[in-house]
Write a structure and sequence with these properties.
By secondary structure, the protein is α+β, with helices and mostly antiparallel strands. It folds into 3 domains: 131 residues, PAS domain (Beta-Lactamase); 99 residues, no CATH class; 180 residues, Nucleotide cyclase, GGDEF domain (Alpha-Beta Plaits). It is 46% helix and 25% strand. It has 14 helices and 14 strands. The strands form 3 sheets. Strands 7, 8, 9, 10, 11, 12, 13 and 14 form an 8-stranded mixed β-sheet that branches. The longest helix is centred in the middle third of the chain and has 47 residues. The radius of gyration is 63 Å and the shape is rod-shaped. It starts with a strand and ends with a strand.
Amino acid sequence: MAPVQADGRTQGVIALPLPIAKINRIMTANQQWQSAGMGRGTETYLAGPDSLMRSDSRLFVEDPDEYRRQSVAAGTPLDVVNRAIQLGGTTLLQPVASAGLRAAQRGQTGTITATDYTDNKELEAYAPLDVPNSDLHWSILATRDNSEAFAAVAAFSRALVLVTVAIILGICVASMLIAQAMVRPVRRLEAGTQKISAGDYDVTIPVTTRDEIGDLTAAFNAMSRNLEIKEGLLNEQRRENDRLLLSMMPEPVVQRYREGEQTIAQEHQDVTVIFADVLGLDEISKDLSGNELVGIVDDLFRQFDSAAESHGVERIRTLHNGYLASCGVTTPRLDNVARTIDFALEMRRIVDRFNRQTGHELRLRAGINTGNVISGLVGRSSVVYDMWGAAVSLAYQTHSGSPQPGIYVTAPVYEAMRDVRQFTPAGTISVGGVDQPIYRLSERS
């Protein structure tokens, strides 16, 4: 508008109307928002100094009912909304009270995040609209919903989170695999240690690295081999100890001795005892060296041991040239007397065979008795297995009751064997002040 004056006086006003339709075509891109590069939540509009729109709202153009609902919910008076729907536009009706408009009215240009006339969060660009040679004080605003404006940022954030999570998972998986690879040699060493602690020394772990773990594995293998060798030596020593113990005492006594029993003694009934010595060893020792004499005694006693084992007789001990054995101690036997007689005859044959081979004149003298005995271990630092009892004493007295070689038996033995063996009276021996007869086995084989 412009005044018309004459003679200094205003005579009228000239007004030039602005077509709203053209303004709306420009501000709405002729309603081709997508072609103009605007998203669904993007619009541009003009606003005047009275904070009313100077162009139509995109939401009103596209969906009047949705415009009504959102505008009323945002606080726009219902009569204003109804008037806009009645007139078919929001120009000069819809109030705009955004922070961007106020800044544009102050002559500022910029972009902010604000709330629009429908109370939606939006990214808002604003600027004052300068029309040359005009007193219009309009503002232009371009808005875009936050959900659309920051969609790329949100997508990037989601992608960044997913990538970060994937990287973290990858690092965790890689760490687990690396940890497994690093711990695997240690676990093999642990398994090998458990086998060794269980007594299995035949353990060899493959050396797969050349680092400290590899050096430790090689040292472990060397230790395992050394332990295996030492275990073999210890087992050999145990077997040798067992052999020595079994040569000194019966196996049941050895077992009790291993278990740590301090006092080992046991009573036995119906046992036959033989005490024998080899006559003539002292005489031939004058012409022999010590090694030769010991060799002869060892050879004879080894043969005695073999014969005892074959007849079921257990050697008790040896003393000088004496040999004490029994039958029925370890394993009770009904024929212990007969077995002992057979063993004595075998001992005599061994001595006779030795004489024929060497030319010496050794003789066997043996005493046999039967009865109850007590066996056990005596001593601590030097353990000796021995046998006591009247049967043992009488067997010794019987063997020494005659200076002549031969196999002598007591009356109980004679009574048990008189029907199957030939005996001759050999005098008497004194037992507790009482004379008891002894008999000499007459058979030579």
